[in-house]
Automatic annotation (TrEMBL):
The keyword Signal does not apply. InterPro entries: T2SS_GspF_dom. The chain crosses the membrane at residues 119-150, 280-299. This is Type II secretion protein F. It comes from Jiangella ureilytica. It holds the Pfam family T2SSF. It is found in: Cell membrane. One of its GO terms (cellular component) is plasma membrane. Keywords: Cell membrane, Membrane, Transmembrane, Transmembrane helix. The lineage of its organism: Bacteria, Bacillati, Actinomycetota, Actinomycetes, Jiangellales.
Length: 306
């Protein structure tokens, strides 16, 4: 009976997949044009912001194709996943590859207990197909959430490092402007003084923008939108004032850099305070345990005498 249920499930899944592949979806011309414009703008932004310059994971063509279909399906339901795109851009990964990895992890988490339960059921032991299916569903959700949680955690650390680099970049740009250089020359010179991954990303963005005929401040603004760093957007707006209105921005850049450093210092002090409180709680627990260790023999002696 178990073998029949498993074979029926596999046959049903195959029939569903075959029907999905052979079915020809109806295409709305307006939606297709809007999607084409969106993909073109996305490809242009990826070229300008050097989205693949940080070296992401190697993705096969089949994974990209699967991820592309999943992305189109999710966008069809109105899910743009802007924050996830920014996190993956910081990590040098694509949204298509991430979606394909998520689906494969969820599938692996589902199949592990189901297959193990099916094998054990032939020996007369195990939880049964129903129990294995429930455990598989739970593991599928957990395994599918792991890539996204890992990506968000890693992206938060890299975004914090990126903000630190942007503060140094602001100081360098202000120094170059004070030396009499123009804005494009100041940006290029400031970005060429370090080989860190964040500064390399900025330098590649400026170089690509020059090749595509895009202004440096516009490219930096698009890079800020791409990776979710507000400081780059502010820098782009300040530099645009220099180009359009002729405003003096050197003092403003130095003030922005100082403000950014003070905010980072406040965040570091806040985290240090939280860790100090955690250490106090841990010490209190140790003290309670030590007092209990001292009091326990005497308490047991009193209880035995009574």
């Amino acid at each position: 009976m178990t073998l029949i249920l498993v074979a029926g499930a596999i046959a049903g899944a195959g029939a569903l997949l075959l029907g999905y592949v052979l079915s020809v979806p109806r295409i709305n011309p307006a939606a297709a044009l809007a999607r084409l414009d969106s993909e073109r703008s996305r490809a242009r932004r990826d070229r300008i912001t050097a989205a693949t310059s940080t070296g992401g994971t190697v993705e096969s063509a089949s994974m990209r194709k699967l991820g592309g279909q999943l992305r189109q399906t999710l966008e069809g339901f109105g899910l743009r996943m802007g924050s996830l795109r920014a996190d993956l851009s910081l990590l040098g990964r694509t949204l298509e590859g991430h979606l394909a990895t998520t689906v494969l992890c969820g599938l692996a988490g589902f199949l592990m207990p189901v297959v193990l339960t099916a094998i054990l059921s032939f020996a007369g032991i195990g939880l049964g197909i129903a129990g294995g299916t429930i455990i598989g569903l739970v593991l599928a959700v957990v395994f599918a959430a792991v890539p996204t949680l890992t990506a968000r955690s890693s992206a938060a650390d890299r975004r914090r490092d990126f903000r630190h680099v942007v503060g140094s970049f602001l100081d360098l740009v202000a120094m170059n402007l004070a030396g009499g250089r123009g804005v494009p020359e100041a940006l290029q010179a400031a970005s060429s003084l370090s080989d860190g991954w964040a500064m390399v990303r900025i330098r590649d963005t400026l170089l690509t923008a020059r090749l595509h005929g895009v202004t440096p401040w516009a490219a930096l603004g698009e890079l800020g939108d791409e990776v979710g760093v507000d400081e780059l957007r502010d820098l782009a707006a300040a530099l645009a004032l220099v180009a359009e209105d002729g405003a003096k921005v050197r003092e403003s850049l130095a003030a922005r850099a100082g403000s950014l450093r003070r905010r980072e210092l406040a965040e570091i002090e806040g985290k240090a305070g939280q860790r100090s409180q955690s250490m106090l709680v841990a010490q209190l627990v140790l003290c309670c345990g030590f007092l209990l260790f001292l009091v326990y023999p005497a308490l047991m002696g009193v209880l035995e005498q009574s």
